[in-house]
Write a structure and sequence with these properties.
single chain; 7-stranded mixed sheet; 4-stranded antiparallel sheet; 0% helix
């Protein structure tokens, strides 16, 4: 079992930045591929990006590529999502998730989920 708790969400103006954190506890955090998803009102949950546990390689959805950066600190059992140049369409509840599959990008690939943190981008 892995327990995940997101934090760092809030209200930010368009063009601004925000950093989300995901604190993990339970089974060895460093052995999991970690991902971020988001869900906007009335829309399906979508993949944002992820980081592998071997080599800490990252991959992103096209919609956030070049603006968002995922990193992990295994010593602190924490995952991060640095969001820059935020747009109105980035408004959503952001979730972190853990997977034992490499290059996981589907919801069904992830076994463990946090409760989510709200990010609202205003004009």
């Amino acid at each position: 079992q892995v327990q995940l708790v997101e934090s760092g969400g809030g209200l930010v103006q368009a063009g601004g930045s925000l950093r989300l954190s995901c604190a993990a506890s339970g089974r060895t955090f460093s052995r999991y591929n970690m991902g971020w998803f988001r869900q906007a009102p009335g829309k399906e949950r979508e993949f944002v990006g992820a980081i592998t546990w071997i080599g800490s390689s990252t991959y992103y959805a096209d919609s956030v590529k070049g603006r968002f950066t995922i990193s992990r600190d295994s010593a602190k059992n924490t995952l991060y999502l640095q969001m820059n140049s935020l747009k109105l369409e980035d408004t959503a509840v952001y979730y972190c998730a853990a997977s034992d599959m490499t290059w996981a990008s589907k919801i069904s690939d992830y076994a463990y989920w946090g409760q989510g943190t709200q990010v609202t981008v205003s004009s």
